[in-house]
Amino acid sequence: MAIDDDRADNRSRMEVKKDAQRQALLDAASEMLAHEGPGALSLRKLAKKAGASTMAVYTAFGGKDGLIEALFEEAFDRLSDMQAAAPRDPDPLIWLASLGAAYRAFALANPAYYALMISVTMPLTDHVLEGQQDDPPARSISHHPAYSHLRQAVEACIEAGFFRKELDAGDVADMLWAHVHGLCSMELAGYYTNEKAAQERFDLSAETIMRGLVSEKGRTRLERR
Question: Which end of the chain is more exposed for a tag (fewer CB within 10 A), N or C?
């Protein structure tokens, strides 16, 4: 039994090491793309930057296309994790606001990955998300779990009567995503003089948009907050 336990421990340590190396390669690749552009994404240069072998890159991703797909998924998985961690308040308006804050927090904490999300820094392959080959890369956002958190919150706002009943949840989710994405992109690009100014603009813009979406019931709820 002791031998079997030792083997299991060794396998566990090897898996942890592989996961850590894969993460190091993804982080290094995202930084290369953000700072040097797609032309810099050489598997040999990546391996050197991450302190790994070229074979390790092929083992982890199968090649450059696999690496690009993994980068795209990693960006959205990180966003999805932050959104999932946002408090799901019984009041859907508060939940929606928490998701907006989580999106901004993700962008500020992961600027290199954030730049990948609509293929700003790299050309995505046609099959970034399996089963979505007919969609352009940017449109594939709507099929990712990260997007579903936002849509579910919008649907909850409509069902609770806080948003105007004639609104379509998909249209509202698209608009809110574009709104937050644009503000975060401007902030990361250095548009605002400081973080306080960026936060104030984010809050003002969010409040203005929400007031255009809410019903009378929702307006009353906002005024009580």
Answer: N
CATH number of the domain encompassing residue 43: 1.10.10.60
Among 62, 77, 92, where does a domain finish? 62
Domains held by the chain: number: 2
Tell me the residue range of the domain where 36 lies.
1-62
| Segment (H or E) for 38 | none
Domain boundary among the residues 41, 62, 83 is at 62
- What gap in Å lies between CA 92 and CA 97, rounded to an integer? 8
Same domain, 135 and 172: yes
Determine the number of helices (DSSP H) and then strands (DSSP E) in the chain: 10, 0
* pLDDT tens, residue by residue, 142-186: 778 888 999 999 999 999 999 999 999 999 999 999 999 999 999
Amino acid in position 213: L
83-104 pLDDT, tens digit per residue, is: 999 999 999 999 999 999 999 9
Q: How far apart are CA 7 and CA 219, in angstroms?
A: 62
Provide the pLDDT for residue 4: 54
**Whole-model pTM over 0.90:** no
In sequence order, the 6+-apart residues with CB closer than 8 A to the CB of 177 are 141, 147, 150
- Give tens-digit pLDDT for 27-75: 999 888 877 777 778 888 888 888 888 898 898 898 888 888 898 889 8
